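Q: Sequence in, structure out?
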Amino acid sequence: MEIALFFSPLKETFFSTPDNTLGGQVEAFVEEVPHWKDKDIVILGVPEYRGEESTSEARNDLAEIREAFYQQKNNFSQLKIADIGDLNLGLTLQDTYLRLEEVIANLIKENCLPIILGGSHDLTYAQYMAYASLEKYVHLINIDARIDLDVAGTSLKKEAFLGELFTQKPNYLFGYSHVGYHSFLTDTEELKLLEEVGFDCFRVGELKSNIHETEPIIRNGNLISIDIDSIRASDSPCSFSPFGFTAEEACQMMWYAGHHEHMSSLGLYGYSSQKDIQKRSAKGYAAMLWYFIDGFYSRMGKATIFDSNYTKYIVPFESHTICFYKDNLSDKWWLEIESDEGANKLERNVLVPCSHTDYQDATEGKLPDRWVQAFTRLSL
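A: Exactly. Output:
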């Protein structure tokens, strides 16, 4: 794949920073395309906004995020990151989707983790389609104040693209978790539809009371997408709502996402320099990127769930038992769905990330919601 044909170079000023900053260490497309195939993470910009507005006029919003990001300190001993510039947009929005899909798929095939700087939130569709083109079953984590689903039809616009994503044939979306929706912006029919197919939806209020409960949700995912509207306007002026996650909570979730060894792409969408007061949203997104990278370089590697570092807990119910596993090093929890429980379409035991609260609920005779949702998903 010839990256130079797809991307435009960046300003050298982003990277004219001291050696102890990210800008002084990241290899970037300024004059020549960097050697991206040997990198852990590849950053790419997609200044595509036709999914939320009719104009195709070019915008330079992503420069604000990069300026803030590359001034941050490099506290990583083995940084292997490339920035390959901004994607050249297609003649149509659909052309951009196809181009972005091809780029992300190629990066994933080379074991590079793409970080997509958007652009409107409907670019999540192309992010997912990259996995579909590789025939990979994935679980999508979507952090957004709204559920962008049009129950009356399908559309690839910003506020309706999920309908098209969910109805793709063949479909490789094994799971979907919506994090941080606002009840006053959500149609109950949308929630009912998602719950019927075993998808998870979490209100912002129930998560803000204990942000650590987002860790097992995020640990279930393979790709993560975040809309800037999920962050409250006082922390991020680009957001439309006074309610939402704080910038600190968003950074915490990004660390969880980076630390999860199966998370293989990140999309940050919705930034607008025209709305950004004192560049607070750009600085917030830059900090979120930093924490994602910090989580990534803190990954502990893959371990077998049955080794000596894990403790197994068995909780009997009337018709079956549930096995829980606790990682004694990280305090992470999983629950197990056995292959002979119902019509498990994967025909193998499945480990579902959970929390200590799920185990406590089970010991009190309450079937954990995560078990029910995963069982439903596996049986469809």
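The mean pLDDT is 89.
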